[in-house]
Each structure stands twice: as C-alpha cells, then as structure tokens.
Amino acid sequence: MSNSSKDSIDTVSKLCPQNVCTGCFACKQVCAKGAIHFKEDKGFLYPEIDASLCVDCGLCTKVCPVLNPRIAANDNQENAVSYAIWNNNLKDRMNSSSGGTFSALADKTIERGGIVYGAAWDDSMQLRHIGVEDTEGLEALRRSKYVQSNTDGIFKDVKQHLKTGRLVLFCGTPCQIAGLLSFLGNKDYPNLVTVGVVCHGVPSQRSFDQYLQEIEKEENVKVIDCSFRSKKRGWKPGLNLVMSAKKADNKVIVMEKLLSDNVYMNAFLKLYFLRESCYNCPFKGNVKGYDADIMLSDAWSLWSASPLVKVDFSKGISAVAFNTEKGHNFLMQCGDSLCMLERPYAEYASNSGFKSARKPLNNDAAYEYLKNHTWMETQSKYFPMTFKQRLPLYTRLIMGENNSIRIKRIIRKILHR
Ligand SMILES: Cc1cc2nc3c(=O)[nH]c(=O)nc-3n(C[C@H](O)[C@H](O)[C@H](O)COP(=O)(O)OP(=O)(O)OC[C@H]3O[C@@H](n4cnc5c(N)ncnc54)[C@H](O)[C@@H]3O)c2cc1C
Prior knowledge:
- Helices cover about 30% and strands about 20% of the residues.
- It contains 14 helices and 13 strands.
- The protein has helices spanning about 25-30, 60-65, 90-95, 100-110, 155-165, 175-185, 205-220, 265-270, 325-335, 345-350, 365-370, 375-380, 385-400, 400-415, and strands at about 35-40, 45-50, 80-85, 115-120, 125-130, 170, 190-195, 220-225, 240-245, 250-260, 295-300, 320, 340-345.
- Helix 11 runs antiparallel to helix 12 (about 375-380) and helix 13 crosses helix 14.
- The protein is globular.
- The structure holds flavin-adenine dinucleotide.
- Flavin-adenine dinucleotide (FAD) binds near residues 147, 197 and 298.
C-alpha cells in the first residue's frame, strides 16, 4: 500500500489506497513542505508521505479526488447531445488519433493568447504533460499515446496561468481532469476549458520503456518518436504503429509495425498491464461529477450509421460530448474549422471506453513474467495472437506488401457484396 508512512490513528494526512490511486500528482503538488514523494510499484508511480517532513496539515488528503468524490454534476444525460466531428484541415486530421477535434480546440486557444496542456514525449521518450503556447508546439501534443502521462508540477502551472486571467485548455484522461479540478478547489474558472479523452486505461511508462529497449536492441537504433495509431493504412484501433528512430550514423528511419506484429498494442487492446485503478475507474461516464467540459472519443460506432456511410472514415472521426455549457460554447466557437453532425447521446455512450477495463485473470502473473522475459516471450505464454490476428502479417511476408493490400481489397469486396 502506498498509504502514509505516517499512519497512526490520530494523523490527518492520509493518502488513498494504492489500488485506487490514479497517480494524478495532486497530493504532491499541494504539499508546501515537499513531504510527498512518488515511488514505483509494478511500473507505476505511487505517492508516499515522508514523516520527517510532514506537518500533518491534511491538505494531501483533502485534495485527493478519490478520497473526496464530488456529487455528480450532470448525471441526467437523457437530453444530452453528442456530435460526430472531423477537422477541415486534412493535415491536422491525419496527424490526430480520431477526427482532430483536439487540434481545433487547441488552435482556438492559442489564437486567443492562451496556453494548451497535453501529453508529449520528451527527449528520452518519457510521456509528460507540457504547456504549449504556439501552433508549432501543438504537433507534440497530437495523437493518443498509450502510456500514463506524468503530470508532476503541471497543476501548479495551470493555476498560476488561471490566476492571471489567461485562457487555459487542459487535455487529459478523466482521472487527470479530476485531479486538476480537485487541486483547483473545484472552483469554476471561466478561463479554464478541460478536455477529457474517453480512456479505457493506461499502461506504465516502465513497460513501454522495456518494449522500446527490445526494439532498439533488435534494430540497433534509438527510437525518437512513436505514433500508436498512424492512419497511413486507414483508421482502425491500433492498426499501425509507426516509430521514428535514429541509426548509429544519426540517419533517421521510419519503422512500421502492423497490429499483427505488435506485442505492445496486442497487450493494450487485450487490457493487460494497465494501472490497477483503471480496472475500477471511478471517473468514467460522469459518475463522480469531475467531468471535463468536453469529452473526446473515437466514433467507431458510426462506421455503419446512416447518414454517415458516405463520409470518408479512413481519415478518422471523433465522437464528442459536453458536460458543461462552457464546453459546448467553446466548441461552437471552433465551428469554422470543424465539420459537425449532431448524433444521439446513446451512440456516444455506447463506447466501450466508457466502462472500466476488465482485468485479465492472468494479468499479474504475466506482469511478473515480463520482468524477467521479453515482450514476445510474455505474449506467447499469456496472451498469444490468434491465427486471424496474424493473418495480415503472414500475407505480407509471403506475398509482399502490394499483393497483400490487393488481396485484402478483394476479400473486403467479396464480404461486402
Ligand atoms: C490512453 C488513452 C486511451 C484511450 N482509449 C480510448 C477508448 O477506449 N475509446 C475511445 O473512443 N477513445 C479512446 N481514447 C481517445 C481517442 O483515442 C482520441 O485521442 C480522442 O478521441 C481525441 O482525438 P483527436 O483526434 O481529437 O485528438 P488527438 O490529436 O488524438 O489528441 C489527443 C489529446 O489527448 C492527449 N493525450 C494523448 N495521450 C495521452 C495520455 N496518455 N494521457 C493523457 N492525455 C493524452 C494529447 O495531449 C492530446 O491533447 C484514448 C486516449 C488515450 C490517451
């Protein structure tokens, strides 16, 4: 348990149990004494109180969004609306994970002199939240990264900007939004717009590091960028991971991994190695009233929905919902950059990312195994790919890339006849 090392019955300062701690960093950022440190367990970071520095003010306990659930603000979604949205700017849309809605919101914020917070890789491929103040910087924030992003120090930054009256757009997972709002004392800042991604869970930086190290060793390269869902071959969950890597002579190469050859995405899509709190997430689907002003997700359910069949889905579409008027108004102000179609809320809410991920029964055993084995060995033993999953890789290897694409098209035509 990550609970306080200062846990005699009469202490005020207590942290939430490790199995429900989301690692939002609110407790660390509120502590003026620097008495909270984060330690790693099973690849994830958890807070601990240093008894020698703690003055028992109880702020860390008060700020924890798990220990202090709010009353749901907007529980009745009966009349709620949602939208299918895509960005009119094709480049931004193609460089985003779904319809590029985030990019339009971020552009509008910067146009107004605001600052945008989101998750970006640093030089060592560690995922951290950063603040971006110009449109060029937004490229680093685009795209879903399937690793938990570190928000240490960020809520404090956000608060400082808010106090000066600057417009702030903060994008993150629902638990990060909950941490931020709690850190801000649940005060409604008119100049803060929060954007949540519907998230089925986050794997740890540690397990991603191991995956990268194995690739780097095998290919003798240094990975410098990673896009989990490149749209080069269309828009499908986890279809195509693309990495940029530097060779020994500093030449940058692009490496592509289809889902059928991608152990990391195979584990992620089968819900392995997520943070423990993701298996029982209290911040999904408007349960605890910590909702973001705007929620973004992938509009998978619209593949077959009328009247959208004619739209080019291969470029990605976002399903977007609102929890506040502020969120709705802000999105409407981005209307010039976006194509928007009103859709039934039930369609948005049918997204499986709305529910907590189901923990695979052998998840913990697989994690222990991964510590001393490669990703590939762990996959073979615990979550092997089926023949159907592997088929695209086999056809590509046997027939060459172009023939395999042609065969896929023919099969698709036959199936849809
Ligand atoms: C870990 C994770 C799991 C997801 N699971 C689902 C799901 O199950 N179902 C579903 O419909 N959609 C899911 N999404 C959301 C979806 O993939 C799209 O990101 C979302 O629809 C926004 O797309 P976009 O094209 O508007 O913007 P994009 O350009 O794709 O921008 C995405 C925004 O998300 C932020 N972001 C990226 N990675 C992280 C991260 N690890 N932590 C916090 N913020 C991050 C970026 O900073 C950026 O602001 C998930 C996203 C993440 C990050």
